[in-house]
Amino acid sequence: MKRLWIWGLIFLFASSFLSAGEMERKDVSLTVYNQNFALVRDVRLLELKEGINTVRFGDIASQIDATSVHFNSLTDPAGCSILEQNFEYDLVSADKLLQKYIDKEIRVVTKDNNLYEGFLSSYDGQQLVLAKTPDKGPLFIVNRENVRNIEFPQLPEGLITKPTLVWSIFNEKSRQHQVELSYLTNGMNWAADYVASVSKDE
Question: Is 175 found in the same domain as 86?
Answer without folding.
Answer: yes
